[in-house]
Design brief:
Blueprint: H1 6-14, H2 20-28, E1 30-37, H3 40-56, E2 60-67, H4 70-79, E3 88-92, H5 93-101, E4 105-106, E5 132-143, E6 166-167, H6 174-186, H7 197-206, E7 210-212, H8 219-224, E8 230-234, H9 235-244, E9 249-252, E10 260-268, H10 274-284, H11 287-297, E11 300-301, H12 310-315, H13 320-324, H14 331-336, H15 338-348
Parallel strand pairs: 1-2, 1-3, 6-7, 6-8
Antiparallel strand pairs: 3-10, 4-10, 5-8, 5-9, 5-10, 5-11
Helix pairs in contact: 3-11, 6-7, 7-15
Length: 353
């Protein structure tokens, strides 16, 4: 048998000589595309989850498509519905529910994904096609140069000393929707499913102090770069960016509590590689992948077996004292009147800025 060294193989390839064993290997490779958040989430998710998955599964190639928001992610899939180019989507639970209702995502079961049996009960949400892959929470971010001591209350957003120095992502962004529910509690508004009027009224009083309702590129950079003194964001990203800018920015979990945010992982209906997609989803939900990602980006894992360090746990929303202060919210119920919240913001909040 002829001895084919690497040099000879490369030389034959350069001359255009057919190499059937190479063609066969290429044909056997399966490719899937995962669409999820861009920016720092993309950078860390690739290293913590996608690269280890491909190393363990050399026959599956995973491409990543970064999207700024879940709404944009869903919009792309709507345009591709007849011939989807995406196989797996990670997005917030409200948008995932909408996509599932439209038949864009295919419901998965524990029979297809046995790893789902390892997840905490809150990870399985009725009416949502895929299980939760991360939990997070809304926090307040602040410029260290403006706060000798950390702010302790959401009411700091109404402090006139910060006029023109506050950044808020308005609805339909879920940060703004979440702030509405927090404000409704601060105002004594009662059950948000019945009325959010008091919360909207209170937000209207804050409006003149806000510099921007659409911070670019995002509220984290706005605070870290000194463009504003205060902003709201998601804990995982805020903690990571504050760690990178430890002399300029910090994160506060106000004493009144906060609201959980849920990201789900979903199988696209019409995926060309559904088996490979399910294999990736299984790995992404595994205790190993969940722990690795939490250590890197401080999301709360959904797998009960994920072992994370105490240092990482302290930066998540999963500490007992933070969990005790969480405001109970049913995001599926909120989804039913999200458009109403957005319209009330347009008429009664943003118009007052």
């Amino acid at each position: 048998m002829q001895n084919f060294t690497r040099r000879k193989v490369l030389a034959l390839g350069a001359m255009g000589v057919a190499m059937p064993w190479v063609t066969k290997a290429s044909a056997q490779e399966r490719k899937i595309t995962v669409a999820a958040y861009s920016d720092i989430f993309e950078d860390i998710y690739k290293k913590a989850v996608i690269e280890p998955f491909m190393k363990a599964n050399p026959g599956i190639r995973v491409d990543y498509m970064g999207m700024p928001t879940s709404a944009q992610n869903l919009g792309m899939l709507r345009a591709q519905k007849a011939a989807p180019q995406i196989d797996v989507c990670i997005m917030d639970v409200v948008v995932a529910k909408a996509g599932g209702d439209e038949g864009i995502y295919k419901p998965v079961t524990a029979e297809q994904l046995p790893v789902m049996k390892q997840l905490v009960p809150a990870a399985i949400i009725e009416g949502v096609p895929g299980p939760a892959v991360t939990f997070d929470t809304i926090v307040m971010m602040y410029a260290l140069s403006k706060f000798p001591t950390p702010p302790t209350s959401w009411k700091e957003l109404w402090n006139k000393q910060h006029a023109g120095r506050i950044a808020i992502d308005a609805p339909p962004n879920l940060l703004g929707v979440g702030l509405t529910l927090i404000a409704n509690k601060l105002a004594g508004g009662g059950d948000y499913r019945q009325s959010i009027d008091k919360g909207i009224q209170l937000l209207g009083e804050m409006a003149p102090l806000v510099q921007t309702w659409d911070p670019k590129p995002n509220p984290y950079a706005a605070v870290a770069n000194g463009v504003v003194d205060l902003g709201i964001g998601y804990n995982a990203r805020a903690q990571t960016i504050s760690k990178q800018n430890a002399d300029r920015m910090a994160v506060a979990m106000p004493e009144e509590g906060s609201i959980a945010q849920i990201n789900t992982i979903n199988l696209v209906n019409g995926s060309k590689q559904p088996e490979a997609a399910l294999q990736f989803m299984s790995y992404a939900l595994s205790a190993e992948a969940q722990a690795t990602f939490t250590e890197a980006l401080y999301y709360v894992p959904t797998n009960k077996g994920a072992a994370i360090s105490e240092e990482a746990r302290k930066k998540t929303a999963a500490t007992p004292e933070r969990m005790a202060r969480m405001i109970d919210v049913d995001w599926i119920e909120v989804a039913k009147f999200r458009d109403k919240i957005t319209e009330q913001w347009r008429r009664n909040v943003i118009s007052r800025s």
